[in-house]
Amino acid sequence: MYAAGAAVARSLPGPVARALATGAGLLYAGATPDRRDLMARHLRRVYGEDVTAATLTAGVHEAFASYARYWAESLRLPGMDAATVEAAMSWEGIDHLDRALEAGNGAILALPHLGGWEWGGLWLCQTGYPVTVVVEPLEPPDVFEWFVGFRRALGMEVVALGPEAGPAVLRALRANRGVCLLCDRDVGGSGVEVEFFGERTRLPAGPVTLALRSRAPILPTAVYFLDHGGHLGAVGEPLAVERGGRLRDDVAAGTQQLAHRLEELIRRAPTQWHLLQPNWPSDPGYGA
Question: If DSSP states are collapsed to H, E and C, what string results for 123-148?
Answer without folding.
Answer: HHHHHCCCEEEEECCCCCHHHHHHHH
